[in-house]
Design goal:
Layout: H1 11-24, H2 26-59, H3 63-111, H4 115-121, H5 123-165, H6 167-170, H7 177-214, H8 216-221, H9 225-277, H10 283-322, E1 342-350, E2 355-363, E3 369-373, H11 380-387, E4 395-400, E5 403-404, H12 410-416, E6 417-420, E7 429-430, H13 431-436, H14 444-453, H15 457-461, E8 470-471, H16 480-494, E9 498-502, H17 510-523, E10 528-532, H18 536-541, E11 544-549, E12 552-557, H19 559-565, H20 568-578
Parallel strand pairs: 3-10, 3-11, 6-9, 9-10
Antiparallel strand pairs: 1-2, 1-4, 4-5, 7-8, 11-12
Helix pairs in contact: 1-10, 2-3, 2-5, 2-10, 3-5, 5-7, 5-10, 7-9, 7-10, 9-10, 14-16, 19-20
The structure holds adenosine-5'-diphosphate and magnesium ion (MG).
Adenosine-5'-diphosphate binds at residues 119, 351-352, 356, 374, 376-382.
Length: 586
């Protein structure tokens, strides 16, 4: 199955973001560059002084003169070291500030991603972007960008210094430039696509592996092992090919650069020697320039090798910014719902191209308990998701108090309608913290009341630290049924007007489930509850029952009415009451 990945930003968007980030930190950036320029200037004194030393030695100057030169050299080095330290510090501080801003922005974007998009793209891509890409970007922002800026300043100053020392002797300094320009252009033209492919192949590997591990039991049960293995092998082969490609780029580019570095030094010696023999430059000048040619190799190399890293960072940034390009599936309006009356009108919905709901009408009477039953795959969960405003309908409307659910700001929507499914998450933290997520200002008494409402106070108090017991990954494991109860207790605390429970008690044994549903009903009196049920006692206890079949509501009425009608609900009920363990509503 091929799947669409999340979008990726264009290089123009990446450049604009980089510019605006640097613009926002202009003062810190200037400080860093000035400090670095000063450090570089101090470093440039070295070759000049060494040149003087060489000439003095040849001319047989006094030792005092040479000692003075040596002292100056030491002083210049010390100044350079101190300035470099401050300059680097300024660079790191800037990098951290920029990265912190990027990361905050990214987190906010990820948390507001439309659920439907995340489902379609798979979580592997999002996980890779949040880990690998963010890490790559951190490295770029913390090290690569400051290094490139600093190295550029140093290179320019060094070349200028060589020309100031002696223009004719300095000419070989430029000999490597064409090689560097052509080689680097060649490389940079090919590298972005290469690295993008590499990162995408990692995302694909992550996705396949995570899916296989998550679904290990299903894979085993259905004997899909070989298929999954082939899939993972194909993903690995693609990652391998992508890595080979970028490696080939580097094996051509790096040697070209080595040649470009060696050339100016060699030429400078040969050419400088000739200049001295012709008396067109002094020995001191040629020595200084040759040393500059040696000295410039390091910053040029740093500049270029970090440029490679900047490239990787830019690719990562493109993927991170891409998350922002996901079109919003909800457009927040200003309309305020008049009441809590939820109405579904002529709703059709498709996950891909095929409609799974075909014109659903449903008027939820405020305060009623509606049970939804029907065979598996009928569209019950889909209807639940639309009732909770998770997906917008393809056509038709789902409104609360006259306002479409998908026009409400998420915060507001979640105060009105909440969905609880079979999938829950126990967060790392204490039981109390897990509950407080739903209502941060709840008192301990309220937490206990919520737990009591879902028949869970007893087992929670029996935990080693009661409400303060650490649960979730790494903490005390909860059974699936307990996790389900914690999710329901959260729901009680959130206290929305409309609740959609999608088989939310399915993991409890039937008797416990029925007891829980009854105590929950007592707490939720006055709330509208839609209970998607696979046990018919839920339907029996409800005010109305909707039978969903093949994306349509086939029957709608009270238990007694539907029994009297003698339709498919009546048939289901007959077989279920004869043997509740054999037949369920699905
Ligand atoms: N995330 C999804 N992507 C694509 N198709 C889906 C998705 N979820 C459900 N479907 C399809 O929609 C139809 C209705 O599914 P669902 O609402 O889960 O039914 P029910 O809850 O009644 O078992 C099924 O054909 C199912 O395969
Ligand atoms: Mg379902």
């Amino acid at each position: 199955m091929s799947r669409r990945t999340l979008p990726v930003a264009t290089s123009a968007q990446v450049r604009a973001t980089a510019r605006s980030l640097l613009g926002r930190h202009r003062r810190a950036l200037t400080l860093m560059l000035v400090l670095n320029a000063l450090a570089a200037l101090a470093g440039l004194a070295g070759p000049r002084l060494l040149g003087e030393v060489v000439e003095s030695v040849r001319d047989g100057s006094s030792r005092g003169h040479i000692d003075r030169l040596a002292l100056l050299l030491a002083a210049a080095l010390t100044v350079q070291t101190v300035l470099t330290w401050f300059a680097r510090r300024a660079g790191f501080v800037l990098g951290e500030a920029v990265f912190a801003r990027l990361r905050e922005g990214y987190l906010a974007r990820v948390l507001s991603l439309p659920l439907s998009t995340v489902e379609r793209a798979g979580t592997g891509d999002l996980v890779t972007r949040s880990t690998g890409d963010v890490e790559a970007l951190a490295r770029t922002v913390r090290f690569a960008v400051p290094e490139v800026l600093v190295a550029t300043v140093t290179v320019v100053l060094t070349v200028v210094a060589a020309f100031v020392t002696s223009p004719p002797a300095a000419l070989p300094m430029l000999a490597g430039a064409p090689l560097i320009l052509i080689g680097t252009r060649w490389y940079l033209r090919r590298a972005p696509a290469g690295y993008l492919r590499e990162r995408e192949s990692y995302a694909q590997c992550n996705g396949s592996l995570a899916e296989t591990v998550d679904g290990a039991r299903t894979v085993e049960a259905l004997g899909l092992g070989q298929r999954r293995l082939r899939r993972i092998e194909a993903d690995l082969a693609e990652a391998h090919a992508a890595e080979r490609y970028t490696l080939r780029l580097r094996t051509i580019w790096f040697p070209t650069m080595e040649l470009a570095y060696a050339l100016p030094v060699t030429l400078s010696l040969v050419w400088g020697g000739w200049l001295v023999s012709q008396d067109r430059a002094s020995l001191a000048q040629v020595t200084a320039v040759t040393l500059y040619a040696v000295q410039v190799v390091d910053p040029v190399d740093r500049m270029i090798s970090w440029l490679d890293e900047v490239q990787v960072g830019a690719t990562a940034l493109a993927r991170i910014l891409g998350v922002d390009l996901v079109p919003d599936d909800r457009v927040e309006g200003d309309a305020v719902p008049q009441d809590e009356h939820v109405v579904v009108e002529d709703v059709r919905f498709a996950y891909r191209d095929r409609d799974v709901l075909h014109g659903i009408d449903l008027d939820l009477r405020p305060g009623e308990r509606l049970a939804v039953v029907g065979p598996s795959g009928a569209g019950k969960s889909t209807l639940g998701r639309l009732l909770a405003g998770i997906h917008p309908p393809r056509t038709g409307t789902v409104t609360v108090g006259g306002v479409p659910l998908v026009d409400l700001p998420l915060d507001d929507l979640r105060r009105r309608v909440v969905l609880v499914t079979q999938e829950h998450h126990v967060f790392v933290g204490t039981v109390a913290e897990n509950l407080l997520l739903a209502r941060p200002d709840a008192t301990e008494g309220e937490l206990r009341a919520a737990l009591a409402a879902v028949d869970s106070l007893d087992w929670v108090l029996a935990l080693p630290d009661g409400l303060d017991t650490e649960v979730g990954s790494g903490g005390r494991p909860l059974t699936p049924a307990q996790a389900q109860q914690v999710a329901l207790a959260r729901l009680v605390l959130a206290d929305p007007h409309t609740l959609v429970l999608d088989e939310a008690t399915s993991l409890l044994d039937p008797r416990a489930a029925r007891h829980l549903e009854r105590s929950l009903a007592a707490v939720l009196r006055g709330r509208t509850v839609v209970a998607i049920a696979h046990r018919l006692h839920t339907a029996h206890d409800a005010d109305r029952v909707a039978v969903v079949e093949d994306g349509r509501i086939d029957e709608l009425g009270s238990h007694d009415e539907l029994i009297a009608e003698g339709g498919s609900y009546a048939a289901l009920w007959d077989s279920w009451s004869a043997d509740p363990s054999a037949a369920t509503a699905r």
